Here is the input.
Amino acid sequence: MPGKSAAARSKRLMSAERRQEIPPERVLETIGLRPGQVFIDIGAGPGFFALPAAAAVGPRGRVVGLDVSPSMVEELRKNAARAKAANLQARRISKTSPNVPPGADFYFLANVLHEIDGREAYLRDLRKRMSAASRLVIIDFLRKKTEHGPPLRDRIPLRELRRLLAATGFKVERVFRPNGEEYGVIAFRTGARLNR
Here is the structure.
């Protein structure tokens, strides 16, 4: 949302309208998030998915919400405190390197991958931090005209994402549709070593 203030962007990201468009609890249920698990939300913003994830994993689980924007990280901290989500940690992250905790159950990117330059390098780096049991979840906009989302030229077609995931050492486990504008992909790392 270029040109919008952080407060306006945060308000839109946490709006009731957005919850109707893509109910976060339903998405988290679809991917199989359970109590006691570790969920890393890359591009967490003010916590649209991170806050419900903290509730889903419960006190024995952990959520790390990461964002490149200092104002979004601060907003997430405030929202976590309001929600009494003691199991949610908010941190700033680089746009070029996924310096994320290793071995989590889920690495989650909702409407983020299309904003990343150097996607192959980013995904290869992320793969190194994942365990064999970890799952990568990517939600992004379909490459068609929709009411919301980035310009068509910035969108990643599902076919292209599948190719990108295969090239970076991932295998698609499942594709789902959270709504009529977006797709979701659940993938895991393959065992083969990748040439650099």
